[in-house]
Write a structure and sequence with these properties.
By secondary structure, the protein is mainly β. It is built from 1 helix and 10 strands. The chain binds zinc ion (2 copies).
């Protein structure tokens, strides 16, 4: 699947399916997207291929204090993906809205739902998602046979 910025100076190709798709309802994502949540598809960096210009990397403050690196078109400044310090440069959080067909990447998990806007209603399947932590899949394994 391909995608890119609004002026089409930056174009990318995504190889394969994302590891996971996060809808992040944290207040930082609300501010940075100007809307109620970010929608990020996680890809290993080598599976995100730039087809035209390279994006410029803008270091942006983040909730952790370590900053996130946002890849933006050097002309129209639309953000196409970002790196977070937790996962480093190896993982790119591709902004689903920049894909040519965003319907291919519905969210697998909703995170930071404790700060979601009250009028946003989530599908029932996501009800067990963590309320204020990061991912369910990329984090620690759930303990098995706990107490046994
Ligand atoms: Zn552009
Ligand atoms: Zn967020």
């Amino acid at each position: 699947m391909e995608g890119g910025c609004t002026c089409r100076h930056v174009r990318y190709r995504l190889n394969g399916r994302p590891m996971i798709v996060h809808a992040c309802h944290c207040t930082w994502c609300q501010r940075e997207t100007g809307t109620v949540h970010a929608l990020n598809a996680m890809y290993e960096a080598e599976r995100v291929e730039h087809l035209a210009a390279e994006p410029e990397i803008i270091v942006t403050p983040s909730a952790s204090g370590k900053g996130q690196r946002i890849a933006r078109c050097p002309i129209c400044k639309v953000a196409v993906w970002s790196n977070y310090p937790g996962s480093g440069p190896a993982v790119r959080f591709v902004r689903v809205g920049t894909m040519d067909d965003p319907s291919q990447c519905p969210p697998d998990v909703h995170i930071f739902t404790s700060t979601k806007q009250p009028w946003v209603t989530l599908p029932r399947a996501h009800a067990r998602s963590p309320s204020s932590t990061t991912s369910t899949r990329s984090g620690r394994k759930r303990p098995r046979n706990a107490g046994g």
